Give the backbone structure.
Amino acid sequence: MGRVILMCGLPASGKTTRARELAVERHALRLSPDEWLNALGYAAEDPARLRVEALQWNMAIELALAGDTVILENGFWPRSERDERRSAARAAGVEIELVCLDVSVDELRDRLRARNESPTEGSFRIDLSDFESWIAYFDRPSEEEFALFDPGP
């Protein structure tokens, strides 16, 4: 059975780094909306993000139905989004796993400053003022929520 892995966390929490490691460990395909948007010449906040994320979700489900493992790096900040994806994956008959990188806000600020000074390919510059406003949108998964997902190997 295939599997979809949701990478949950705020910017600079290490989602891409961990997703790359998981892709190697699990022979998985990694899908990053930021990388696709960057390659297509869009800004991080462009309305095209919703279309890219929808395309990547549909691709992830199709590949998981074929027996593959797919990693999605969307961030999945609100619990409602994670609940929706979990329900949809279950309805499609594929396993779904949640990986959360929960890093202190102070550490995230430091990482963002460093990343903004030396951006990596596929990443976007993030203003600290934007980051500060996004913190409120992040629902940290509880142990009860993790229990609703399939466990990792």
Summary: The chain is about 50% helix and 15% strand. The longest strand covers residues 69-75. The chain has a mean pLDDT of 91. Strands lie at 3-8, 29-31, 69-75, 95-100.
